[in-house]
Write the structure tokens for this entry.
Amino acid sequence: MQPVELPDKIHVGPVIDPGHSLASVSDKVAGIVLKRKITLGWVFGLLISFAILQNLMAGATWLLIKGVGVWGINIPIGWGFAIINFVWWIGIGHAGTLISAILLLLNQSWRNAINRFAEAMTLFAVMCAGMFPVLHTGRPWLAYWLLPIPNTMGMWPQFRSPLLWDVFAVSTYLTISAVFWFVGLIPDLATLRDSAKSPVSRAIYGMLAMGWRNSARHWQRYEKASLLLAGLATPLVVSVHTVVSFDFAVSIIPGWHTTIFPPYFVAGAIYSGFAMVLTLMIPVRRFYGLDDIITLRHLNNMAKVTLATALIVGYGYTMEAFFGYFSADTYERFMIWNRMTGPYAIFYWCLILCNIITPQFLWSKKIRTSPGILWIISIIVNIGMWLERFVIVVTSLHRDFLPSSWGYYAPTVWDWAVYTGTIGLFMTLIFLFVRVLPMITIFELRMLLPSASVKEPVAQ
Amino acid sequence: MSVHTDGEITLYGLMAEFETPGQLVAAARRTREAGFKNYDAYTPYPIHELDAAMDLHDNRVSLFTLIGGLLGCAGGFGLATWVSAVAWPLNVGGRPLISVPMFIPVTFECTILLGGLTAAIGMLLLNGLPMPYHPVFNVERFVNASRSKFFICIESTDPKFDRTLTANFLESLGAEEVAEVAE
């Protein structure tokens, strides 16, 4: 690895390589889609991902034939992998919206190079997430019962239930993320339409661009709509994981019934999401030679957000343990003690290692700007955040109030099949995305260039 | 610096090409000051200075979003209330049927959903998109509008438009090239 020269400044290097011009950034990003040959590495990666995706097909098929009994869930642990993975995937999605919406409102221009990719990640992660509650019902063909649709049974959903709130929150999140993403894509699709040589790609991108012609009158409304969408998506992203945490916090199960859950879940979501952005971006910038656009400064900034959210999550864990003790409630105390020393103690301590200890390395600027080490840390954080959801779901449920109804949960091969299958789906979609759509927002990249700023000639 | 003429064509307008955003903003301002109404600038990225230079202040997207958001808010709360109090009333220990705090999450999500959709759809409709054909694409160099170049097009429908005078005017703005746009 190249030694990194660090200037004595807050920022590590520029947000975009100074050698770039309006034409060169356009050609570079559009060229990845339009000109680059299909490489063996990409085909190999897609095939592997697609092979893993078959796990989902097998797992879901068997589940539908036999019912949810093929999973490891039981009473008392009725939630298991389905909810663990649902929360994990939804959390991963949150970084995309944070980068595209909140950082837009905060005027953080460095986000311009990574928002498209992060939003795509959001969309794909929410797709994976949405599958779990539906499969968890065991009878997905009745999933419409979740929606307030007039039906022959004359029944309606319960609007006081967090599980129904979840339906509204997640479907709104998916819709708004998709809309935001597509609105952001329109000008870039126009760029692809105008640069494409083959009539087929010109026709496809042309249809998708809907006749966008870069008119100043259009841009003015476009910018307004983007800002409004960002303003709406910001409270939305906070609300989604808050509602997810309500699934737990509104119940009376020890370890779940706490007011700290909403902020702690939102921070955890952003934490895991940024880790996933790093996990995906570091290889992509290397394989597609994008280190002049996704610079070390981006990695450094993302690592800082990861560290900050790691500390919030760490505070959450500490408070959970403290409340367990301080509540003087027998069941709360037992739950925390059982979590730390019971049958699942190994998961708890691994989670502390992954989520609290590992990110402390990010205090070092040297590590924050070493892509390789950062990538390994991001993988560890992803695992840690999955363990967190496992610990929250399983340890609280398996030993609650009545020792006579205690139980034990272990996932079966079908749990793993569906879980790994969604990872395959996610990776397949990412592989397809980087080849058919510009993975960097080209028009926003242009705005980062020094030559893009307006210097009016002196009037004669 | 020359005016291209492609024989006898119906003219949509005259298009001038500029090299830098600074030249474009200055040119757009002078076009407006010269009294032209039907003209537009085309830029590869949004230039906020143009809003002042071209006097652009269309706030209808915000208005649509507000209306959409309010409708979503009322719709979400109305749905929850109607379902819980009229269509499927459940008396749980005498608790109120219209339990306002529990209806807030759905109300909130519906507000965001409709607000966001009207923002996006409103923007597209006000911009007249999707638009399968537009004359500006008849100019060969216009493909650069989505890449690296800046354009101003004065349309023939403008009352002040005159084939020669307007071409001269655009050239006087420092345009690289002035082209006729076929209808």
The beta strands of chain B are 3-4, 11-18, 39-42, 150-155, 177-182. Residues 3-58+133-182 of chain B form one domain. The first helix of chain B runs from residue 21 to 33.
